[in-house]
UniProtKB/TrEMBL annotation:
Gene3D superfamilies: P-loop containing nucleotide triphosphate hydrolases (3.40.50.300). Pfam families: ABC_tran (PF00005). Residues 6-224 form the ABC transporter domain. GO terms for molecular function: ATP binding. InterPro entries: AAA+_ATPase (IPR003593), ABC_transporter-like_ATP-bd (IPR003439), ABC_transporter-like_CS (IPR017871), ABC_transpr_LolD-like (IPR015854), MacB-like_ATP-bd (IPR017911), P-loop_NTPase (IPR027417). The keyword Ion transport does not apply. The lineage of its organism: Bacteria, Pseudomonadati, Pseudomonadota, Alphaproteobacteria, Sphingomonadales. It comes from the Bacteria. Belongs to the ABC transporter superfamily. Keywords: ATP-binding, Nucleotide-binding, Transport. This is ABC transporter ATP-binding protein.
Length: 224
């Protein structure tokens, strides 16, 4: 079997709150295989976002080991973290974080321009991804002209723009009504599978989690 896209071992993270130390992650071990879609399930406050921020190299202060695409990343400097984020990771958040002054296509083109890709190639890929998500008629709309579900679809296309080995999604449909959330999640999963990326998807929703390849549960700082 090929090496996991993500290997986390003994990951710890504590915060001090009002003079007290709370241990949010107490030794998390997790492997995600190439192309595997794993649900990270746990109630609000259980540490899902904290775990994704560690794996996404967005926050420091962690103990333990994180390997992404075969590279030990826990001790990288800020340039190294930026490189891994850019080359291997895609992100989807609960709120879309699209650039408001750019249209849907431009929001998906921009992350590709740091790659060795012409504007025409980036544009073609953005159009293909957005069309695959049913947004072929929304290519030149700005975020404010799109519905919540459409905004999240653009965010999904943006996350996949550079063919990341691993997509990190933090409650990607948490801001949508249930019917829209179901449709957007199904499209997200279909596209991630089609692209061959792996994904780690944080959710507090058991029903959503069961749609993924495997479910891991965060409980008292460890994965069960
Ligand atoms: P989840 O995403 O599962 O809802 P979080 O990872 O956001 O959980 O938070 C887990 C715990 O860590 C919570 O008790 C939260 O208050 C605490 N926490 C998260 N970030 C910080 C921070 N920057 N400073 C202090 N405490 C934090
Ligand atoms: Mg969270």
């Amino acid at each position: 079997m090929s090496e996991p896209v993500l290997s986390v071992a003994g990951l710890t993270r504590a915060f001090s709150q009002g003079g007290e130390t709370i241990e949010v992650l107490r030794g998390v071990d997790l492997h995600v295989g190439a192309g595997e879609i794993v649900a990270l399930l746990g109630p609000s406050g259980s540490g899902k976002s904290t775990l994704l921020q560690a794996v996404g190299l967005l926050e420091g202060g962690f103990g333990g080991s994180i390997r992404i695409a075969g590279e030990q990343v826990a001790k990288l400097d800020s340039d190294g973290r930026t490189r891994v984020r850019r080359d291997s990771l895609g992100f989807v958040y609960q709120f879309h974080h699209l650039l408001p002054d750019f249209n849907a296509t431009e929001n998906v083109v921009l992350p590709q321009l740091i790659r060795d890709r012409t504007h025409a190639e980036a544009n073609a890929r953005a159009t293909a991804l957005l069309s695959a998500l049913g947004l072929g008629h929304r290519l030149t709309h700005r975020p404010s002209q799109l519905s919540g579900g459409e905004q999240q679809r653009v965010a999904v296309a943006r996350a996949l723009a550079n063919q990341p080995a691993l997509v990190l999604a933090d409650e990607p449909t948490g801001n949508l009504d249930e019917a829209t959330a179901d449709v957007v999640l199904a499209e997200f999963l279909r596209l991630v599978r089609g692209e061959g990326s792996a994904a780690l998807v944080a959710t507090h929703n058991e029903r959503m989690a069961l749609k993924m390849d495997r479910v891991v549960r965060l409980h008292e700082g460890r994965l069960a």
